């Protein structure tokens, strides 16, 4: 797979003929770049209809309500009517590309779409570290499970769908990808490379690197991967002792919004430390994509009660937590951002 393709044109429209291909996964991980090229494997930026049109553009018919339950239902909501009612009360969201309400997360608290470029070095998959990634076998399992098979999983007594076949894209009734296909997919993902970085490692970037070190960022965003590949507990999560033996856990919570980690099917109680490689071609920072750009992620104004996020949001409110680098001088902050964009 080429790192950056120049097909199909410089148009900013998403051509219909690739729609099927995108639905099978490439939709979420193909990025339309500013110059009109497509970057394969990156964080996708095609707007997500479920998020942006919901609920006004879709009548709440039975099929749609079933879809919501299968994708977002959780074992602790016992009355399905309560769940459906709460869904209908959700405020409309503005269009925001780069986050996706994928199955097992939340309509209100969707995660940002990760870039798969460099995924071979990442030890935990999903923002919540739901799956370990020790080998290509784990990646293959992740791929097959996350194409709808997980909707047949049991969460205690709760099963999102009891139908005969998995719900979701890529799985025709009674079928799944073959092991050969999954192995090829894994190799393809491992072969993804970033495009040449247009941002020079100049004097300003070198100054920014000093700020990065001085502020203690490498403790978690450790070079050369710019992640320590560790998990951090979400606010309010007490780490079980046995997990400390098997997982790579940092004892510090960075205090970001805990909902995805604590109240969804993909919740583990943790957020992983993300890699900062490739932040120059991404948007929607933090697991929920609430900070549109790095400038916003490092802006202390985002902590205010009445703050309106420029990234994904449904109502005004602070972008909580991760207060590292918020107290820098304007010059240091600028240099830090210049540095981050060279990674
Ligand atoms: C104690 C560990 C820790 C330290 C120190 C730390 N970070 Fe982070 N960082 C995290 C975690 C965990 C997240 C993900 C939080 C979330 O999404 O809820 C994160 C997220 C980020 C993101 C968003 C990345 C993305 O893909 O959305 C950026 C940018 C970032 N950190 C930059 C920095 C910078 C710059 C510093 C130093 C000023 C720093 N971090 C210090 C743990 C840390």
Task: Please give the largest β-sheet.
Answer: 3 strands, antiparallel
Number of strand segments: 7
Give me the CATH architecture of the domain at 203-340, please: Orthogonal Bundle
Task: Record the strand order, biggest sheet.
Answer: 1-3-2
Q: Specify the structural class.
A: mainly alpha
Provide the gyration radius in Å: 20 Å
Strand portion, in percent?
Answer: 5-15%
Can you characterise this structure?
The structure is a single chain. The longest helix has 12 residues, at 179-190. Helix 5 (136-145) packs across helix 6 (179-190) and helix 7 (203-214) crosses helix 11 (330-340). The chain is built from eleven helices and seven strands. It has a domain at 203-340: Cytochrome Bc1 Complex, Chain D, domain 2 (Orthogonal Bundle), CATH 1.10.760. It is mainly alpha-helical and 343 residues long. The model is unreliable at 1-24 (pLDDT under 50). It has a three-stranded antiparallel sheet with strand order 1-3-2, with no helix packed on it. The structure holds heme C. Residues 127, 215-217, 219-221, 232, 252, 254, 256, 271, 273-274, 276, 279, 285-287, 294, 297, 322, 324-325, 336 line the site of heme C.
Give the helices and strands, then pairings.
Elements (H helix, E strand, L loop, with lengths): L3 E2 L13 H8 L3 E3 L5 E3 L8 H5 L8 H11 L7 H9 L35 E2 L5 E2 L3 H10 L33 H12 L12 H12 L16 E3 L7 H6 L12 H4 L7 E3 L21 H4 L32 H11 L3
Antiparallel strand pairs: 1-3, 2-3, 4-5, 6-7
Helix pairs in contact: 5-6, 7-11
The site of heme C (HEC) has 25 residues, from helix 10.
């Amino acid at each position: 797979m080429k790192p950056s393709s120049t097909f199909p044109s410089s148009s900013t429209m998403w051509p219909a003929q690739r729609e099927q291909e995108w639905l099978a996964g490439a939709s979420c991980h193909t990025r339309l770049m500013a110059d009109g090229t497509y970057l394969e494997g990156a964080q996708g930026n095609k707007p997500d209809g479920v998020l942006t049109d919901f609920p006004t553009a879709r009548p709440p018919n039975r099929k749609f309500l079933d879809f919501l339950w299968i994708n977002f239902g959780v074992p602790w909501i016992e009355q399905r009517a309560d769940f459906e009612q709460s869904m209908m009360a959700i405020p409309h969201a503005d269009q925001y590309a780069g986050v996706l309400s994928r199955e097992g997360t939340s309509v209100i608290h969707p995660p940002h779409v990760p870039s798969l470029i460099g995924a071979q070095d990442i030890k935990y998959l999903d923002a919540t570290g739901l799956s370990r990634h020790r080998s290509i076998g784990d990646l293959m399992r992740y791929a097959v499970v996350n194409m709808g098979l997980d909707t047949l999983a049991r969460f205690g007594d709760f099963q999102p769908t009891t139908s005969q076949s998995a719900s979701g894209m890529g799985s025709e009734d009674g079928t799944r990808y073959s092991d050969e296909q999954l192995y090829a997919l894994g190799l393809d993902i491992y072969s993804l490379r970033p495009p040449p970085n247009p941002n020079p490692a100049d004097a300003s970037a070198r100054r920014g690197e000093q700020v990065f070190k001085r502020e203690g960022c490498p403790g978690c965003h450790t070079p050369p991967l710019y992640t320590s590949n560790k998990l951090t507990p979400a606010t309010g999560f007490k780490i079980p002792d046995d997990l400390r033996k098997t997982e790579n856990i940092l004892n510090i919570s960075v205090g970001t919004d805990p909902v995805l980690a604590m109240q969804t099917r993909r919740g583990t109680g943790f957020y992983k430390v993300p890699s900062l490689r490739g932040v120059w071609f991404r948007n929607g920072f933090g697991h929920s994509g609430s900070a549109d750009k790095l400038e916003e992620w490092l802006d202390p104004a985002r902590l205010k009660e009445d703050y309106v996020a420029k990234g994904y949001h449904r109502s005004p409110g602070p972008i909580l937590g991760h207060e590292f680098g918020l107290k820098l001088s304007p010059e240091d902050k600028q240099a830090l951002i210049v540095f981050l964009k060279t990674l």
